[in-house]
Amino acid sequence: MRHDPRQHDAAGNMTSSPKPGAEGTRLWLRYDAWNRLTHVSANSDHNPTIAEYRYDGLHRRISKAITGGDTFHYYYNENWQVLEVTKGSAAYEQYVWDARYIDAPVLRWRDANNSEVDGLEETLFYTNDANMNVTALVNE
User: Fold this and answer.
1) What stretches in the chain show pLDDT beneath 50?
2) CA of residue 10 relative to chain centroid, distance
3) Alpha-carbon distance 117 to 78, whole Å?
4) Which of 36, 50, 86, 120 could be stapled to 40 by a disulfide with Cβ–Cβ 3.0 to 4.6 Å?
5) DSSP one-letter string for the chain
């Protein structure tokens, strides 16, 4: 039987995990009272912080700040669907949702080359089965 290197707290939240792509390195995860991920750290004392997450009163993630890197902000519609993600002050991703079902994305525009100058150059269309499950992403 293989040893599972992940650790969990009493609420079932993963508190420690191998770093993806560098399994010999560990990540330490911290949660708030509502079991929402708030910090990812490189050490068990939670210092230094790698990423920090913030939420609004409706429990939706509103920002992700990567230490020494970018800050992403999330904007939602009244159905709790992400409409736009910004990186800094520029649009990074935009989503269009199907009106027939709440969890059915139609397309995503994304800034694939991380350049604020040329905008959102990648378009991916979502395909769905009869149950509105996403079955594939198709580019233009």
Assistant:
1) 1
2) 24
3) 30
4) 50
5) ------EE-TTS-EEEEEETTEEEEEEEEEE-TTS-EEEEESSTT--SEEEEEEE-TTS-EEEEEETTS-EEEEEE-TTS-EEEEEETTEEEEEEEE-TT-TT-EEEEEE-TT--SSS---EEEEEEE-TT--EEEEEE-
